[in-house]
């Protein structure tokens, strides 16, 4: 599926309006959260938010912040 979407001004922000086809593909509805992640090739991916994944990402971020120096040393 390829959809070309226009950016629209919404208040003081800019947003995208997702058509019904995209929402159905994401299995998302109004009020749901979506995640935008960067792929290894630099492209962006849009996924419906999953409670478990969100909780795991918050835990991973906390660990990375707490052990920032240790992880930096290990990366050498």
Largest sheet strand order: 1-2
Largest sheet: 2 strands, antiparallel
User: How would you describe the shape?
Assistant: elongated
Q: Based on helices, strands and strand pairing, what is the structural class?
A: alpha+beta
Instruction: Kindly give the count of domains.
Output: 1
Q: Which runs of at least 5 residues are low in confidence (pLDDT < 50)?
A: none
Domain SpoVT-AbrB: 8-54
Protein name: Putative addiction module antidote
Pfam family, one: MazE_antitoxin
GO molecular function: DNA binding
Structure description:
The chain is α+β, with helices and mostly antiparallel strands and about 80 residues long. The protein is built from 3 helices and 4 strands; from the N terminus they run E-E-H-E-E-H-H. The strands form 2 sheets. Strands 1-2 form a two-stranded antiparallel sheet. Strands 3-4 form a two-stranded antiparallel sheet. The protein is elongated and about 45 Å long. The relative contact order is 0.10. Pfam families: MazE_antitoxin (PF04014).
């Amino acid at each position: 599926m390829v959809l070309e979407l226009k950016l629209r001004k919404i208040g003081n922000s800019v947003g995208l309006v997702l058509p019904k086809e995209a929402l159905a593909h994401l299995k998302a509805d109004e009020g749901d959260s979506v995640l935008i992640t960067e792929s290894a090739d630099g492209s962006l991916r849009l996924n419906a938010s999953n409670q478990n994944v969100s909780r795991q990402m918050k835990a991973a971020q906390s660990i990375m912040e707490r052990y920032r120096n240790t992880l930096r040393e290990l990366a050498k």
